[in-house]
Protein 1
Amino acid sequence: MTTGTTTYAALLRGINVGGSRKVPMAELRTLLEGLGHGGVGTYLQSGNAVFTSDHGDEDSLAEELAGALADHFGFTVDVLVRDHAYLRAVLDACPFPAAELEAKQLHVTYFSTPVDAGRFASVDRKTFLPEEFRLGDRVLYLYAPDGLGRSKLAESLAKPRVTKGVVATTRNWNTVVKLVELTDG
């Protein structure tokens, strides 16, 4: 159990895309408040929320929110919850020169559990150059010079053989930076 109040970000996967699985941000904020969390806010319409809590840990808070979302909306939403310290560490550990790149060129995929390099052994990295990826602590950093929408490497990394058994959700660098700011006290 966490002691004191901690600031977290909730990352919802696969909502508000293509007109399906709608989760209005106002309703997400209300759900978080109803779970007893404070300092609730949302960022963009793509499933990013921040909140404070004095109970639980990342996994239990994610399960609690996922359950509330399923009860309220009638469909399952994968949720990852990460605290400010972790989000800051991910930002600081970026292996690519973020300050020199456009935000659309750099992405972070957050994973529900640690992943090892063996999971990505079938990806022929040379085939995708100049696109590159590097692993971190429960994250994958992706450099895609032409953006995520045109990235052949991102497409390969999202295949079931790579993502099986793990929840993964991707954010662009602007969102990564913003979530660190929003969870900073």
Note: DSSP finds seven helices and eight strands in the chain.
Protein 2
Amino acid sequence: MQMFIALIAGLLFGAGLTISQMVNPDKVLNFLDIAGQWDPSLILVMGSALVVFGLGYHFLVKPRSKPLIADQFFIPTNKIIDKPLIIGAILFGLGWGLVGICPGPAVSNLLGGNAKIFGFVIAMLAGMQFSGTIDRLLKKS
């Protein structure tokens, strides 16, 4: 049941990204270009996502002691803003600003067969592997 619900959620997420054009790097880059051809339409996408999350959390999650299809909630407890978090956020923002795509839309875009998207996903996976390797090496020393 959990896998089925995860599949449905993933399909809804991918469909939402596609319909809203968040999978279109040009649309995203125009949204980020506030000094040029700024396209504010993605504010509506992000704002509506926050409203849906806020209402869902308030009415469906907050009153419950446990989720419907799991034994417990997994809520992050780490509230520390540290150097790795800041560096990661900066790298994510730079990557998003340079190419106009982030991991969620990249995975959704794989079905389109665009060679640039395949290149992005390969680079993203390599970066994740490299990051994990660096992290393990730093923890050993």
Note: Residues 2-140 form one domain.
